[in-house]
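Students often ask why we bother encoding 3D structure as a string. The short answer is that it lets us treat folding as translation between two languages. Here is a chain of 144 residues written in the first language.
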Amino acid sequence: MSLHSAVWRVHCSAVDDLNLIEKSLLSLSKGKGEVIQEKSKSYHGAPQTTLELTITRKKNARESLLGLGREVLENMIEGGITTFIDEDKTLHLRLDIDELVQGNMKIATGNSRKIGVKGKFKIEAYPGQNPEEIVLGLISDYLA
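And here it is in the second language, the structure alphabet:
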């Protein structure tokens, strides 16, 4: 079993370096995805841009998750993989945007969660299968 797809999304303000953030997003897919820019206004009216990287191929989605590196994957397991998975069989996590643009992968905690890069991975799980076990198996095989 594996992952169906992945989506990485980040909301940027007018002062953010969109090119740098877009390159960082593409690094999450090793260039095997498409980044879409959507300009809008924030709740308070300030201009903002949403960057969204969509990965539709199963192999590339799996590589995107495993490409986060040993430290991030071990932290996910230590923190309890069930805290990252919802009832719709989707794994959610946030990466620290400041670390990502420097080429580092780190799960966002505290205040960095507010402006982190949001990742959603659709788990390939069918009735009777446990999505947590599928993700744990995927990560454990990679870490072994």
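Translate back mentally: The beta strands are 3-13, 34-41, 47-55, 90-95, 117-123. Keep this in mind for the problem set.
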